[in-house]
Amino acid sequence: MSLIFRIVFIIAGALTALFVARDALNFTIIQTFVAVLLVTAVVGAGSLWSMRRKT
User: Of the candidates 2, 1, 8, 4, which has an alpha carbon nearest to the alpha carbon of residue 36?
Assistant: First the structure.
């Protein structure tokens, strides 16, 4: 489970670094927000994929 979180936070850190400087005070807050958005997007895509396969 920690490996999954680590991969998500690596991807979120890379995406966040494109828009926010790494030495900004709120970098970790924005990184966490991006990680939550990534997890939500993956779960939503999986949900839509399973609905598509049932029809």
Answer: 8
- Supply the pTM of this predicted model: 0.82
Instruction: Quote the tokens at residue 6.
Output: 């680590």
Compute the distance between CA of residue 52 and CA of residue 55 in angstroms, rounded to an integer: 6
pLDDT tens string 21-52? 999 999 999 999 999 999 999 999 999 988 88
Distances (CA, A) of 39 to 9, 21, 31, 43, 49: 10, 23, 12, 6, 15
The Cα 12–Cα 31 span in angstroms is: 6
d(CA 3, CA 26): 24
- Compute the C-alpha angle 12/16/21, nearest 5°: 145
